[in-house]
Specification:
This protein is α+β, with helices and mostly antiparallel strands and 260 residues long. It has 2 domains: 145 residues, Up-down Bundle (Four Helix Bundle (Hemerythrin (Met), subunit A)), CATH 1.20.120; 86 residues, Nonspecific Lipid-transfer Protein, Chain A (2-Layer Sandwich), CATH 3.30.1050. It has a 4-stranded mixed beta sheet. The protein is globular and about 50 Å long.
Length: 260
């Protein structure tokens, strides 16, 4: 778990550099994610971390809390009864950083194959930590795009890309569609120039791209038609139009979003 946790720490630091020095007014500016400002974005990430720590450290208590939430007694942004909405941006970040460290330390103590309960299906510790990294990257991009800040392009993108590839079937099921059985070849160029590959080499359905562009699409930070993707085959094109690497109701990327 050391590698993924170190990468998660790196993604957290990248986000810290974006929010460092923001004024209180800037913390409240809307991000490209409709209905969210930077303050609410950090609350979302932090509360998910609180829940993740509980799931990893006290699974039985987590399951009890989850059942209460499913009955309508609270939601993720009020997890644990904490009042964080009145915090200043700086205080909110300090709270988030503490919760993020608590979560990653819990992850580091686990075996990659250990199972952790969650609001959907349970996950391995490795998959769970990878999902937290992906969410940090995607929401970090929301904040960076708000202020026109450059977001670092690192080899950590492989984690995001891998989830994007492996959730192809989910992207269909989540919309009530039958996932195609035809495999798709994915060829991505990493920030360091390496080739990352998934799927059979002889597939006629291909998505080839810079890893960064692919990750923007599967996390719905860019529409496929607005990203630099080399798409070959009808099924590959169909997938990129509906790709969704995260849980929750089916959504679509906003049109015309640029930045980063």
């Amino acid at each position: 778990m050391r590698g993924i946790c170190d990468d998660l720490d790196g993604e957290t630091e990248a986000l810290r550099e974006v929010v460092a020095g923001l004024t209180e007014d800037e913390w409240r500016l809307p991000t490209p994610a409709e209905g969210w400002d930077t303050h609410e974005t950090i609350i979302h990430l932090g509360m998910a971390d609180v829940a993740a720590s509980l799931a990893a450290l006290d699974p039985e208590n987590f399951e009890t809390t989850k059942e209460e939430m499913l009955k309508g007694d609270g939601d993720l942004h009020r997890f644990g009864g904490l009042d964080v909405r009145s915090m200043s941006g700086a205080d909110l970040w300090n709270w988030f950083a503490d919760e993020r460290n608590r979560m990653t330390e819990a992850f580091r103590a686990l075996d990659p194959k250990d199972r952790i309960p969650w609001f959907g299906p349970d996950m391995s510790a490795l998959s769970f930590a990878t999902a937290r990294l992906m969410e940090t990257w995607s929401h970090g991009h929301d904040v960076a795009d708000t202020f026109g800040a450059e977001y670092p392009r690192t080899e950590r993108l492989r984690h995001v890309a891998h989830i994007g590839v492996t959730t192809r079937g989910w992207s269909y099921v989540n919309r009530g569609l039958q996932p195609p059985e035809t495999p798709i070849r994915v060829e991505l160029t990493s920030p360091n120039g390496e080739l990352w590959e998934w799927g059979p080499e002889n597939s006629e359905e291909i998505v080839a791209a810079d890893a960064y562009e692919f990750c923007l699409v599967v996390t719905q930070r860019r529409q496929a038609r607005e990203a630099e993707l080399d798409i070959r085959g009808d099924l590959a094109a169909e997938w990129m139009e509906i790709a969704q690497a995260f849980a929750g109701p089916a959504t679509d990327a906003p049109e015309g979003r640029v930045g980063g």
